[in-house]
Amino acid sequence: MATVTTPISYVDPIKDLWDLKAGKLFASPKDFKNWLNRANSMLKGQKPVDLLNKPESLQQVIKVLGRMEHGIMA
């Protein structure tokens, strides 16, 4: 599977994820931050926030947001 190249900064990935995808999916930044801090079954029970520090794991979070954008929740 090809890796998606995204304009994500490792300085503030939460803001960049909000601007890229999450702003379309969540009612508020607070809701998004709550989602980031909950274990996620699509990430094998990991919290999305714990995956933002490496390019490979950040891509996993972006893929989950993309799936959510298309209505795929599990």
UniProtKB/TrEMBL annotation:
<protein>
    <submittedName>
        <fullName>Antitoxin Xre/MbcA/ParS toxin-binding domain-containing protein</fullName>
    </submittedName>
</protein>
<feature type="domain" description="Antitoxin Xre/MbcA/ParS-like toxin-binding">
    <location>
        <begin position="23"/>
        <end position="71"/>
    </location>
</feature>
<dbReference type="InterPro" id="IPR024467">
    <property type="entry name" value="Xre/MbcA/ParS-like_toxin-bd"/>
</dbReference>
<dbReference type="Pfam" id="PF09722">
    <property type="entry name" value="Xre_MbcA_ParS_C"/>
</dbReference>
